[in-house]
Amino acid sequence: KAVFVLSIIVSGVTMYVFTGSFLATLFYLYAPYRIVNLFIRGSIGESIAFVWYPLLAWLGKRMVVEKKPHLIGLFAAFLGILIITHNASALLFTPILVLYVCGVVFFEKKKTLRAFAYPLIGIILGFGAAAFFWLPALIEQQYTVLNTGILQRFDRFVSPLELVTGLGGTRDFPLTIGIFHITAVVFILTLFFIKKSQRQVVLISAMLSIVFLLMTPFANVFWEKVPIFSSIDFAWRLLGILTFIVAAIIGYGKKKLILQVVSILLLIGAVWQGMRLLPQDRTYFPDGYYESND
To answer: pLDDT at residue 128 above 90?
Structure first.
């Protein structure tokens, strides 16, 4: 259980390193999905994965901007650790990480071959270093629980209403981005759009929309037909990735006073919403339960 506590503390540190925003860090820590993971689902792998998302994004950006070879090794090492920590999260996060790094390269003034090559090499080395873990799992996935038909397919998705408000779910726990988190992001993107940052806002909005839709029943064909991703049991695992993206966007508003004021007010609401998700009845499991719980 100490690992859960450390995952909260260290993920807050890595998020602050990436964004430089205390508000973004708090939004990251008090996201509804993180409360559910910690206190209801007890998913130790996903909880630890929250540590690596900001760190990998930070290293990815530094590789593009600074172009220092030693960053490749650090990036590859932490990507490999993410894969070992929770392979489903690594599989879902890698495309987002690639898109983010490509965006950094695109908006970089001096585009060089190294700016493209370093992240690519880092990703290849990261997956190569963790191949002893993911390759056997991929080859022998037909023997795992995910493919024995135990899971109910309707539990794979979340309705748009539940994603936004937390209402209307069919499970014992709500799966939502958080209404206060969404409000903060919409406010920030709207303000930046008005301030002539249309291209960035359009790209970020498109990415958010795609991730959002992939968690809903409208994306059933994608999860059923696309190789590799069809092995993911729950599409709503993307909520972890979306939680990181939302907090990162909030971090971009750190230099605007009006955004800070509004974000503080919304953060109070986000903390209130998160506290309401805490279970009233506590169930204590031995450590062995968490070692096998994904």
So the answer is: yes
The contacts of residue 232 (CB under 8 Å, 6+ apart) are 88, 91, 92, 223
d(CA 266, CA 228): 38
pLDDT tens string 70-88 = 999 999 999 999 999 988 8
Asked if residues 236 and 157 have their Cβ atoms less than 8 Å apart, the reply is yes
Residues 167 and 176: their CA atoms lie apart, in Å, by: 8
Task: Give helix 70-85 / helix 44-66 axis angle, nearest 10°.
Answer: 160
Q: What's the CA dihedral at 220, 226, 231, 236 to 10 degrees?
A: -40
- Residue bearing tokens 């963790």: 130
Q: Are 233 and 223 in contact (CB under 8 A)?
A: no
pLDDT attached to residue 287: 59
CA distance 286 to 207: 40
Cα(160)–Cα(288) distance, rounded to whole angstroms?
35
State yes or no: pLDDT of 55 exceeds 90. Answer: yes
Examine the pLDDT at 238 and tell me if it is beyond 50: yes
pLDDT in tens, 202-229: 778 888 888 999 998 888 888 888 888 8
State the sign of the Cα–Cα–Cα–Cα dihedral 20, 175, 79, 29: positive
SS3 content of the chain, % helix, strand, coil (to 5): 75, 0, 25
Q: Which residue in this structure is represented by tokens 């960053």?
A: 71
Distance CA 23, CA 268 (A): 11
CA distances in angstroms from 35 to 87, 179, 242, 244, 282, listed in the order given: 21, 15, 14, 14, 14
